[in-house]
Amino acid sequence: MNKLIFADSAGPTWQKLYNNSHFALAALLPASLVSPQDGAIAKVADVGLAAAITVHNHVALNYVISDYVPRGIQAPVRVGVVGLSALTALGLAKLALGGPGIGGAVKELWRSKKE
User: Fold this and answer.
1) What is the tens place of the pLDDT at every residue in 35-80?
2) Which residues lie below 8 Å from residue 40, measured CB to CB, with a gap of 6+?
3) CATH of the domain at 64
4) Torsion angle, alpha carbons of 49, 52, 55, 58, to 10
5) CB proximity list for 22: less than 8 A, separation 6 or greater
6) How many structural domains does the chain have?
7) Mapping DSSP to helix (H, G, I), strand (E, B) and coil, where does residue 115 land?
8) Each residue's pLDDT tens digit, 7-45
9) 14, 26, 33, 101: which one has the fewest Cβ atoms less than 10 Å from its Cβ?
10) Angle 90-93-97 (CA atoms, 0-180°, nearest 5)?
11) 43, exposed or middle or buried, with CB in 10 Å at 0-12, 13-18, 19+?
C-alpha cells in the first residue's frame, strides 16, 4: 500500500510502468479512434487506455505532490490521489466496457462540435 501512496518514489517498477504508459497511450488512443466503435480492437484499446491513463495520471500527480505540496500535508493529499485514481479507473472502465468506449466518447464530442 505504501508504494501505491508514494508512487513517484516507489522504485523502478513504478517508474517503468509510468514510462511505458507513455507508449501505451501513444499506441492505444489512435487505435481506439480509428477502429469501429463496436469492434474487438476498439474494446481492447479502450480497456488498455483505461489502465494506462489511470497509471499515468496517478504517478504524475504524485510527482506534482512531491514538487509543489508542502511536506506537512503531502501524506493526506497522496491518500486523496489514491481515491481519485480509483474513481478514475472505475469511471474509465465503465466507459470502456459499458458505454461507447473512450474513443467513442471522444468521437461523440467531435461530432457534437461539428453540428
Assistant:
1) 998 899 999 999 999 999 999 999 999 999 999 999 999 999 999 9
2) none
3) 1.20.1300.10
4) -60
5) 56
6) 1
7) coil
8) 888 889 999 999 999 999 999 999 999 999 889 999 999
9) 26
10) 140
11) middle
CA nearest to 85, candidates 26, 18, 12: 18
Q: How is residue 3 written as a grid cell?
A: 508504494
- Can you give the pTM of this predicted structure? 0.90
Instruction: Provide the H-helix boundaries in 6-101.
Output: 12-34, 40-68, 74-98
The C-alpha cell that represents 7 in the structure block:
508512487
Contacts of 74 (CB under 8 A, 6+ apart): 65, 66
Q: Pick from 58, 28, 30, 20: which is nearest to 46 by CA? A: 28
* Identity of residue 1: M
Domain of 13? 2-114
Look at residue 9 in the predicted model and tell me its pLDDT: 87
Task: Report the residue count for the chain.
Answer: 115
Q: Which helix (H) or strand (E) holds 3?
A: helix 2-5
